[in-house]
Amino acid sequence: MRFFLVILLVILASCSRQAKQSQQSESKEANLCRYSTYLSVFKTNNGYLIRIQHPDRKNERFQLNISSPANDLAVLSATHIGMLSALNEEKRIAAITDIRYVYSSNVQKRFKQKQIVELQNEQSMSVDQLLSSKSEYVIYSAFSGSFSQEKRLKKLGIHCIPNFDWREQTALGRAEWVLLFGVLSGKVPEAIQLFRTIEVAYSRSKNSKIVSSEMISGNVTGDFWYAPAGESFMAEIFRSAGLNYVYHQTKGTGSVAYSREKIMKDGGKVKIWLNPGFPTKKEIIRVHSKAKYLPFFNNSSIFCYTHNSNKYWELSTLRPDWLMEDLVQIAAGKTTKNLHFYQEVK
Amino acid sequence: MMFCLLCFLPIAMYLHLMAGQIEISFASFFDSFWNYEEKNTAHVLVREFRIPRLFMAMFAGAGLSLSGMLMQTLFKNPLAGPYVLGINSGASLLIALSLMTSVQFFQSNFGLIGTALIGAFAAGLLMMAVAQRLKSQISLLLVGLMFGSFTSAIVSILESFAGAESLKSYTMWSMGSLQHVEFGQLGFIFLIFSVGIASSFLLVKPLNMLVIGEKSAVLLGLSIKSIRMFILLLTALFAGLITAFCGPIAFVGIAIPNLTRILFQTSNHRYLIIGNCFIGAIFLLLTDAFIQVLEGHISIPLNAITSIIGAPFIVFLLMRKLR
Amino acid sequence: MIQLKELSIGYQREILHAENMILEVGNVYALVGRNGIGKSTFIQTMAGLQKKLAGEITFNGQSISGMNTKEIAETISLVDTRFEGVEYLKVKDYLALGRAPYTDLFGRLDPADWQIIQDVACDLSIEHLLEKFSNEISDGERQLCAVGRAFVQETPVILLDEPTAFLDYINRKKLLELLLRLAREKSKCIVLSSHDLELCLDQSIPLLLAAQGKISLHVSLSKEEIIQAMS
């Protein structure tokens, strides 16, 4: 009797396990996103289901079913514009935050033709302007924690979609958010294809080992030098590019703040300086007069994206492969003119 | 008391020099003066980083305390400070225009320091022109405060239009920093400072007379208009110079003159001038040494510490008075 | 001596008018009148703090309009009876400020100056207060110190605006007697405003009566006549 009970239990257990497994494999197959932690996209009978997990609040999930492409979108961050322009769908943009930070020439042209409205910034957005743009969807980033206008806009029938690409911890996880824009513009297969290209290029361009001389990143703000910490997103990218980052062993996923003296001491052997935040040496000195005493000011190669910051902020999230190609070239010490984002600072 | 201070200043200077995160031997200090080598990191550290920071702390502490003392005596108000007349507002406005707009006119080739100097100088001239026409102290104070509010309003407008990077640059400037000054500029600062302090000694008698009130001072033979001008000029000189090199530093100019009076137990400006210089210098030296010690763990801006110490001290002062 | 000619006093409109009068050296004059009539304004105008509307004030022939601040400081001293004391200002230093018109650029006092201060303190019986802080003594003591500072200034003219407000009867009498003695012995001309009619009449002090928009000098009036004039 006991024997039969045990057999029965085992059969039941394996049945449920099998059921779970098939359920899991079912959801794994259906989710079109493979790297993103927060975004999930599922094909449904009449379109696509978007599910966005809030990074901090585990119980909060945004879900929306989209059956037809949107005609008017309000996009509140540069990365959103970048992804839409990669899909050639800038025509769907009806509102942006600040025209000064736009790289896409199509968007600039449409803005001049008064087809796009400017909303200032996400925090203190002008709701009247938004309404005049007739946007059906607002894509926001919630840099400050939450989107203050959400409730009000919902009442007006406008859908607010959170975009947490900036919270993703992996480069491909960030780039994969292009699928969201694929859904919104009715170009999902193209988006998937684009992402595959990026995925392949990115993985191929990575370096397996550290090949460069010592490198430092960042600049002085106020009295302290801020640089990415060893466990941060940027430090990971540096490592993948083969860059020998001076602070790769520090703890934390944010930034480290060091005194000028410490940088003087640690920078003795640095031969590459990334992201000082200015396009020319003259401008660095104008704001930080003591930069000229840094050991790596004169005898290292300095690279930054500030000659075209708009391009960097718009496209680097979508194209980590380009970023990787740039950094790998910098790591190899080749100062070429074919860099996507970076330029040498002289 | 004076003797105590004389001894304590070198101690404070030593503490400040040694407080940095990087260990530098005494020999290196010596060498950086006599055998300066550009390539030697330790020498550069001492000459271009530590020494300027040390002297800037002393000049700023002494200068702000002195100008605070002048303002407190002139207006017979223990809460007056070097900024009541809006001298630093002029500097702030010009810096804001320089950093947050792309108008070519404001992009000076003198760097931030030059820009701030021009702004402070202009504000000082404006205040002196106004003081020429006004009869009473109160009016002058009000004009100064209104000027300060006006420039703050303009800066707010600039801030709302500024991009993230320039906004951050401006915010950082307004947090105060002793580390922008360069070794070569120390000579200039020292010169102006000496002239300023020597001139303040000429004011000892008028300041002592102003202690009992403007009317009584006039009846004792004080030429109030010219003395007021002179005091304004000196205040603008000190406050303007320091704001130009360091940005606005909070509370030092208000708290230290009061502290000096309490410690020295006198209203005689002959002692107060020297006392303020020493106590101001020692205070900023110790405060900055403290910041340096913490630099490895947390990054604290200068104004944060001076406010944290200064504000409760002023509350304590007020409570003493109200008792 | 002080000579007033057609003096018109006020801020924008005239509130008091003085015909011609001469105040002699060696005398104490008491300025009496009802509250708000303009006694303080009169004293301030005599000291040069308030601009006269019309007329002339001359000191030994020299007009007040032609004197610079230093000359005024050596001629007139005004007792600041509303002095509230200053933190960390010792009484002796407060008194020493009275020597300001005569000291050098840095305000240094020589032994002769300190002797004057000592003598004045002795006369006013405030020697025991010299080392105390001016904000830590009583109102009456402070008032005596204010008087002392004017004495230290050694001017031929001394003006006092309600100097007896905080003093007790004994001190008021003492002060008045001291003023009379000083005026006589040191050839000073002293004007004080006061509400103490009895005391002034007792000492036969000439009165400057401020009533109905006019100031007039009276040497001998009875109390009843004065009260009638004032109402």
Structural class of the secondary structure composition of chain A?
alpha/beta
Mean pLDDT of chain A: 87
Helix fraction of chain A?
A: 25-40%
CATH architecture of the largest domain in chain A: 3-Layer(aba) Sandwich
Distance between the termini of chain B: 26 Å
Number of domains of chain A: 2
Span between termini of chain A = 86 Å
Major sheet details of chain A: 5 strands, parallel
Pick out its properties.
heterotrimer; A: 346 residues; alpha/beta; Rossmann fold; 2 domains; 5-stranded parallel beta sheet; 14 helices; 16 strands; globular; C: 231 residues; 11-stranded mixed beta sheet; 8 helices; 35% helix
Description:
The complex is a heterotrimer of chains A (346), B (323) and C (231). Helices cover 39% and strands 18% of the residues of chain A. Chain A is an alpha/beta fold. Chain A folds into 2 domains: 31-203, Rossmann fold, CATH 3.40.50.1980; 206-344, Nitrogenase molybdenum iron protein domain (Rossmann fold). The longest helix of chain A has 29 residues, at 2-30. Chain B has one domain (2-18, 41-322): ABC transporter involved in vitamin B12 uptake, BtuC. In chain B, 77% of the residues lie in helices and 0% in strands. Chain B contains 14 helices and no strands. Chain B has helices spanning 2-18, 26-34, 41-74, 87-100, 111-133, 137-161, 164-173, 183-202, 204-210, 214-219, 224-246, 252-264, 269-294, 302-322. Chain B starts with a helix and ends with a helix. The model of chain B has no long low-confidence stretch (mean pLDDT 87). Chain C has helices spanning 39-47, 69-75, 91-96, 111-123, 139-152, 169-185, 197-202, 223-230, and strands spanning 2-10, 14-18, 21-23, 28-33, 54-59, 62-63, 76-79, 157-161, 189-193, 207-211, 214-218. In chain C, a hairpin with a 3-residue loop joins strand 1 and strand 2 (14-18). The longest helix of chain C has 17 residues, at 169-185. The model of chain C has no long low-confidence stretch (mean pLDDT 88). Chains in contact: A-B, B-C. The B-C interface holds B 201-202, 204-205, 208-209, 211-213, 215-216, 218-223, 261, 264-268, 270 and C 47-49, 69-70, 72-74, 76-78, 80, 83, 86-89, 93-94, 97-98, 100-101, 103, 105-107, 153.
